[in-house]
Amino acid sequence: MWESKMDIYNVFELRGRTLCYFGVGAIKKIKDIAEALKKQGINKVIVVTDEVAYKVTGAWDVIEPALKEVGIDSIMYTGVTPNPTVEQIDEATAMGKEFGAQAVIGIGGGSPIDSAKSVAILLEYTDKTASELYEQKFIPEKAKPIIAVNTTHGTGTEVDRFAVASILDKEYKPALAYDCIYPTYAIDDPALMKTLPPNQTKFTSIDAINHVTEAATTIVASPYSILLAKETIRLITRYLPQALSHPEDLVARYYLLYASAIAGISFDNGLLHFTHALEHPLSAIKPELPHGLGLAMLLPAVVKHIYPAVPEVLADIYEPIVPGLKGVPGEAEKIAAGIEKWLFSLGITEKLEDMGFTKDDIPKLVELATTPSLDLLLSLAPIKATKEVIAKIYEDSLKPLS
C-alpha cells in the first residue's frame, strides 16, 4: 500500500478555515504560531485542558518554553472532564477574564478543545454565560483566536466549527456550530497520541467512523463528504488494529489521526444526524459514559434503519467492514450485523443494557434527543426522524442485534 511509503515526519499544512500543522513533530510548530500571535499584539493566553492531556503527552513541555521565548504570558485551566459542563466553561472563562487573555489554547481531545472554543466566545461576550451560549439565547459572531493542540484521533474538532457541552441539571447536551469557532491554528502530531489508552484509542476512532457515516448520508451530503467518508473508514479499518497491538506505532497513529481530521472536515460539510443526536442524551444522563462508546452502541441500529434510504452510499463506504454488499435496501440487517460483529471483534461488546439503560428509559431519551440543536441534526437524517423511529433505534440498541 502506498501509505507505507509516505514520510510521516514531513509536517504538511492541511488548509481549510483552520491552518492545521499535521505530522510527526508538528508540535514544534507552536513556536511559529506563538510568533504569529505576538505579531497580532497578543501577549496573554489562557490554556484550557484537563488534568492529564497537557502533561502525559509531552505537549506542554514544548508549548510552555515556546510561549515564554516569544514573550506570551499564560494561565492554565485544568478542570475539563470528559463530557465537559457549562460550569467548567464558566470557570475557565472567569479565569481568562481576570488574566486578560487575548487568545485561547486548547490542549487535549474533544472535551478540552470544545471547551476552549466556548471560552473564546465568552471572552468576547463578557456579559453572557455558557448556559446562555448552549441554550442558544444569543448567537455569537466573534471569538478570541483559538489554537487547538489535539491529543486524540477521533473528534475532528481541531478543524471544524463545532463544540459540545453538557447542562447537567437539565440532562441536556447540545451542540454549537458557528463559523467564529474555527480554530485559527491547529496541531495534529501523531506522537502526542502514543499514550492513548486502548479504550480511548478505540472509542475516539469509532467517533470518527460515526462522523462520516452520518456526513455521507444526510440530506445535505455531497460527493466530497462521501469521498472523505470512504477514506476514513478504509484507514480506520486498516490501522486501528495495529494501533491497539502496537500503541507506539507512529504510522498507525498518523493514519488514524488523518482519518479523524478528514472525518471532521467531512461532517463540517455534510453535517450529522441520528447517532450523535441520540448519543448526546446517553452521556448527558451518564457523564461517565465515553462518547465514542455511546456511539458504538447505537451505530448498528442506526445503519439498519437508514440503510434502505441510502443503500448505495453505505454499501460503498462500508466495503472494508462488510464486504460484498450490492447496495440494495434488503441488505439492512446484513450490514447492521456486520458492523456489530466488527465492533465486537475490537472488544466493544457493550450495549445500552450493559450501561444501565432499560426500555423504561426510552421515552425520556426520545424527549432529550428532540431538544433544540439535536432536533436540527435529526432534521437532516435520510429518513424522517419521528419519535417512533428514534424509540425503535434506542430499543434495537439495548441488546446485541444477533
From TrEMBL:
<dbReference type="GO" id="GO:0004022">
    <property type="term" value="F:alcohol dehydrogenase (NAD+) activity"/>
</dbReference>
<feature type="domain" description="Fe-containing alcohol dehydrogenase-like C-terminal">
    <location>
        <begin position="204"/>
        <end position="397"/>
    </location>
</feature>
<protein>
    <submittedName>
        <fullName>Iron-containing alcohol dehydrogenase</fullName>
    </submittedName>
</protein>
<dbReference type="InterPro" id="IPR056798">
    <property type="entry name" value="ADH_Fe_C"/>
</dbReference>
<dbReference type="GO" id="GO:0046872">
    <property type="term" value="F:metal ion binding"/>
</dbReference>
<feature type="domain" description="Alcohol dehydrogenase iron-type/glycerol dehydrogenase GldA">
    <location>
        <begin position="20"/>
        <end position="190"/>
    </location>
</feature>
<dbReference type="InterPro" id="IPR039697">
    <property type="entry name" value="Alcohol_dehydrogenase_Fe"/>
</dbReference>
<comment type="similarity">
    <text>Belongs to the iron-containing alcohol dehydrogenase family.</text>
</comment>
<dbReference type="InterPro" id="IPR001670">
    <property type="entry name" value="ADH_Fe/GldA"/>
</dbReference>
<dbReference type="Pfam" id="PF00465">
    <property type="entry name" value="Fe-ADH"/>
</dbReference>
<keyword id="KW-0560">Oxidoreductase</keyword>
<dbReference type="Pfam" id="PF25137">
    <property type="entry name" value="ADH_Fe_C"/>
</dbReference>
<dbReference type="InterPro" id="IPR045910">
    <property type="entry name" value="AdhA-like"/>
</dbReference>
